[in-house]
Amino acid sequence: QVQLVESGGGLVQAGGSLRLSCSASGLFVGGYIMAWFRQAPTKRREFVAAIQWTPDRATDYADSVRGRFTISRDNAANTVYLQMNSLSPEDTAVYYCAAGRAWSRWESTYNYWGQGTQVTASQ
Hints:
Layout: E1 3-7, E2 10-13, E3 18-25, E4 33-39, E5 46-51, E6 59-61, E7 69-74, E8 79-84, E9 93-100, E10 110-113, E11 117-122
């Protein structure tokens, strides 16, 4: 049974940082494309970042987070991370970890999802 468990969310002041973790069981993060999505109240879930399973660990970021967020993967720990810097209230959302086989920003292409972790950035 595949499980993705997010952690590291919380409340932070604008300009602050958080590091989210996604711990996987039942699948090897080194064999999947791993991604982060987020969903703010009253909004649709949106793509945040993704990392390839290939050795070059290519990454992709939404324009809104590029330069502030960094996605990474630790195969030995079977965990994916999202380092978030310079947070603003616009980043407030539930953040989800996802795993899939297609290099895509579309949530429909991801097969496995975590339950999400709340990130709140206050003024």
